[in-house]
## 1
Amino acid sequence: MDLRPIGVVIGPSEDEVNRNMWKGGVKGIIKVYEEFKEGLLGIENFSHIIVISWLHKITEDQRKILIVKPLRMTDLGYKLSELPTLGVFASHSPVRPNPIGITIVKLTKRQDNLLFVEGLDLYDGTPILDLKGYYPYQSKDVRVPEWSKKLRSKV
Amino acid sequence: MDLRPIGVVIGPSEDEVNRNMWKGGVKGIIKVYEEFKEGLLGIENFSHIIVISWLHKITEDQRKILIVKPLRMTDLGYKLSELPTLGVFASHSPVRPNPIGITIVKLTKRQDNLLFVEGLDLYDGTPILDLKGYYPYQSKDVRVPEWSKKLRSKV
């Protein structure tokens, strides 16, 4: 089960990413390494792509954490006591046993091995593991937790 | 960049999975290993979850392939000549440099460390790398390739 990065994020400062986390993300470039470039054939026909990344800032110790609070929500003005306590698998916390990130981004332009995207929540230098064309998932009965509906009302 | 399975798929026969690939997938169980069970806290409040898996049947040689045809579509009655030639990153082919699968499934029941789900396209024994609560992605301007709209009309 070994992974090989197929590309890397070229993005703005961490500060800018953090500031825009709740505002639809930032603009950036996904640079696919030359040896994997062929795999991009036809990707420009998708308006959105799924970006699978390795959250490289997560430490070995953080990978042992199984219970979290969605701390980033304090950016929205919430107090710690107002945030739910969650298992990592019920959250999108970057802290988790396998720090794999999933982001759906808008693909605005492809220039050879460079993908210009909007909606990134990833830092400059984040290794990319995989890309997949995005198809909207259709289901009428999607339900999200109450805490989430309430807290996200501030976004 | 090492991965540790956090669970495993308990599912029906491969034959059944393949037969139902275009019919919304199969029912199965995701068994989360005891040591990671705590990470499930609150997951039952989501109707749907994102399942991130390691497509364990992909060989080292298949990980070098960058151009594919969506061969599974021959199940729908298409001839090989009717199928587009695609880069792996523009497809959801299991053949890709990092054989990571993403499936959105319906969570019908949680029983301790067992998650009963519907909509699986994974084989019995597939290692699970991560789970995340599913939030519907909202975008008005999602566009998918013409070939896909045409071919999927048979589903």
## 2
Amino acid sequence: MIGRLNHVGVAVPSIEAAKKTYRDLYGVPESAITETRELPAQGVKFAFVNIANSQIELIEPLGENSPIAKFIEKNPRGGQHHICFEVQDIYVARDEMVVRGARVLNEPRIGAHGTPIIFIDPKNSDGVLIELMETPKDAHG
Amino acid sequence: MIGRLNHVGVAVPSIEAAKKTYRDLYGVPESAITETRELPAQGVKFAFVNIANSQIELIEPLGENSPIAKFIEKNPRGGQHHICFEVQDIYVARDEMVVRGARVLNEPRIGAHGTPIIFIDPKNSDGVLIELMETPKDAHG
């Protein structure tokens, strides 16, 4: 049912510092790193580092009630936060997850790629927070 | 410099249970999940879950001195452990990492895909443990 590994989410205290890591240490060209955007409703800033076949999503807390503030408190340097797989239809995926006994953490909402996403309780996935996102209609997203 | 995102490493207390998660909850066909193998010298068991464009590497501690035993102690359900990017030549990559001021954690050694790998100190990569592996000569690996 899951399709492509769309991205790995990495929570960091500073997106600008993390961009520097991928650019200066790992040699990712500046043109492959997106500008930083804000999603105030979800309490995060984000940017993508485009890798040959996938993406790293850098996320930084935004505002006092950011859902990733606690993660950064526990992991002050940052760390891997979630893995995102694509699905064809988010509502079908949501219903399948429920039928299969998983706890879906949110109603489908529009994510950083402009398509609806859900998160699955890490307790259902060996401690890993998994995001499911509907495949963007323009293919790669 | 880095190429494909070869895999995301997920440390788990039980590979067999984690295989069930990807098969029964996320619908990955049995044929896309490799058999479990042991790397006693590195203190791990591992198996791969093949995703359309990448892989999840499931790793489980093997033996008393497993380097991931502490990780499982801290994260008893399991969790995201490392991200692996491909590089063309591991020795060139190792030398570049050193020149750029990163701490390389090991001499190149043969990893689960049969090609040499190194790990970079998470302190150099925003708290993320990054593995660099030489691209397998048979392309996809």
